[in-house]
Structures are given as C-alpha cells and as structure tokens.
C-alpha cells in the first residue's frame, strides 16, 4: 500500500478514535470519563459531543486562565516533540485530514507568503497564553475553527438543554461570538480548497508548540548530496516547503510524502546511516587516542 493511502488511513483512525463517544446521544452532555483528562497531540475540542480526550491547547488555556503551571502538559508535549516532532500533525490530526481532503477539490490554487508562518506563534502567545492569563477567558477556543466545526455547530444545530444549568448550550448572550467564530470557520474552509493546509501554516498554536522540537526530534529528514533541485519534494509537501532547503524546518509535519523522491530519506537514531556515522566517529576517536 502506498505511503499516502497509509497516512490517510491513519488520519481517519485518529479522527474516529479521538471522537468515538456516543453517550452524548443519551446524556445530552459531553464525555466526562477518565480519558477526558488525557490529551492527544493535536487539536481535539473538549466540548465536541463525541470527543473522548482533551485538547492540549484547551488545557494550556485553562492553566493560563487559573495562573498555574501545567506540568503534565509540558512533559507530554516535550515527549511527543522530542520523539516525533510534528508528525502527529501529518499523520493523526483530524483538522489536518480535512484540509488535505478539501485541497483535492478542483479549483484555482494559490500560494501563501512564507512570512505568514510566524502568525501562529503570535496566536500561541496572545490567544492561548496572554489573554487567558489576563482575562480568565478561553480566548482561542472561542474562536477556533476546529472547535466551531466539531463542537459549536453540532451543539447549535442540536441545541439541547444542559442538564447541569437548565439552559441551552448556546444561550442568547453568546450568539454574537458564535457567529464570529462561524465566519472564521467559513473563511478557512474556503482557503482549504485554494491552498495547502492554511490553518496549520498560519494559525495553529499546536503546530507552533511542536515546531520548536522539530530540529531536535528523533525523526528527521535527510537530503542526499546528489539532490538536483527537481522540486518534487515541494510539489508533494502538504505544507509547501522545499525540504532540500529546509531539512530542520519547524513547518515540516513529518508526513514523509517527500521521501517518495529518491533524494530524501527518513533518518532516526536507529537508521543504518546514523549507526555508520557513529561507528566512524568512534573509530576515528580511537585512532586519535592510539596516536596520542
């Protein structure tokens, strides 16, 4: 089975497994089971009717709002980041899967200026950390298009009464905010068709968090010295980067599509080329000691 098909199946599995709670149909409420205290390494709205796990960005906002340090979350993100970098973005994220699928819709295509990649770091700093810290509001979650699609819209359509408060899940006082978030979602949905993964590249704070670890993760991509600049890697890349020029890029989602080019290889600490380099360095060091 070809790489792209395997990746798509993994993305589908990530979508289904992280959103497999059906109890909402009977309880009219979200899951509050023990797994809800566990994060997944991608956006997965806590308020989604079918969500089984928690969203790391929602958790980070919560701790910022109560002005506490999320030790578990920091450790979780560090372990994921140092192990596979942004690989979850390319292989598991439901919202990334949606972007990949919608970009296949025939339409004129456009490129995103490279400078816009830095916006997601501002989103992470301001909407996820600073504003929740100052206002105790979950600022990013209120506007998040992934949350609007998987939680806001389902609840607005169904609109049952919350048994804990006796009020609809979206009382009138939140109507304006809901329509603003709906507008943001529609804008992104249009751009999903026109360009490669615009949300991942411009606005995703989870991608911004994991991007810090890409250079140091165990999963790396190496370009052969024989690379002839064919640009196949960029044509295949879901986030439109040229891996031959940006091997350590924080933008890379480790989807491995570029390895379909003969000049790009996956490299890990267990790869044969890495082992050979270590043996060479060890032998060289031993030789230097003998001479000394």
UniProtKB/TrEMBL annotation:
- Residue stretches spanning the membrane: 71-98, 118-135, 142-161, 173-194
User: Does the keyword Cytoplasm belong to this entry?
Assistant: no
Q: Which keywords annotate this record?
A: 4Fe-4S, Electron transport, Iron, Iron-sulfur, Membrane, Metal-binding, Transmembrane, Transmembrane helix, Transport
4Fe-4S ferredoxin-type domain residues: 217-248
Q: Is the keyword Transmembrane in the record?
A: yes
Question: What's a Gene Ontology MF term here?
Answer: 4 iron, 4 sulfur cluster binding
GO CC, sorted alphabetically, is: plasma membrane
Q: Which PANTHER family match?
A: FERREDOXIN-TYPE PROTEIN NAPH (PTHR30176)
Task: Name it.
Answer: Putative 4Fe-4S ferredoxin (NapH-type), iron-sulfur binding membrane protein. Homology with gene DMR_41050 of RS-1. Named HMP4 in GenBank
Source species:
Desulfamplus magnetovallimortis
Ranked from the top, the taxonomy reads: Bacteria, Pseudomonadati, Thermodesulfobacteriota, Desulfobacteria, Desulfobacterales
């Amino acid at each position: 089975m070809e790489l792209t098909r395997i990746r798509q199946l993994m993305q589908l599995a990530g979508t289904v497994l992280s959103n497999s709670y059906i109890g909402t149909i009977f309880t009219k409420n979200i899951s509050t089971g023990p797994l809800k205290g566990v994060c997944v390494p991608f956006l997965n709205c806590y308020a989604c009717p079918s969500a089984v796990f928690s969203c790391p960005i929602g958790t980070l906002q919560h701790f910022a709002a109560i002005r506490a340090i999320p030790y578990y979350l920091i450790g979780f993100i560090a372990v994921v980041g140092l192990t596979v970098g942004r690989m979850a973005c390319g292989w598991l994220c439901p919202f990334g899967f949606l972007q990949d699928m919608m970009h296949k819709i025939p339409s004129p295509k456009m490129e995103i200026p490279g400078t816009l990649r830095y916006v997601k770091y501002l989103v992470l700093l301001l909407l996820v950390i600073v504003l929740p810290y100052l206002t105790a509001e979950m600022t990013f979650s209120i506007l998040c298009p992934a949350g609007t699609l998987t939680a806001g819209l389902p609840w607005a359509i169904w609109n049952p009464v919350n048994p804990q408060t006796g009020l609809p899940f979206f009382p009138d006082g939140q109507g304006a905010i809901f329509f603003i978030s709906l507008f943001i979602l529609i804008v992104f949905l249009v751009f999903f068709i026109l360009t490669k993964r615009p949300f991942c590249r411009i606005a995703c704070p989870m991608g911004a968090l994991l991007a810090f670890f890409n250079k140091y993760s165990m999963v790396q991509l190496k370009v052969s010295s024989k690379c002839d600049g064919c640009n196949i890697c960029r044509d295949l890349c879901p986030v439109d980067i040229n891996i031959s020029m940006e091997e350590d890029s924080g933008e890379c989602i480790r989807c491995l599509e570029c390895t379909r080019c003969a000049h790009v290889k996956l490299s890990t600490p267990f790869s044969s080329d890495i082992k050979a380099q270590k043996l060479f360095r060890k032998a060289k060091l031993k030789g230097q000691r003998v001479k000394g």
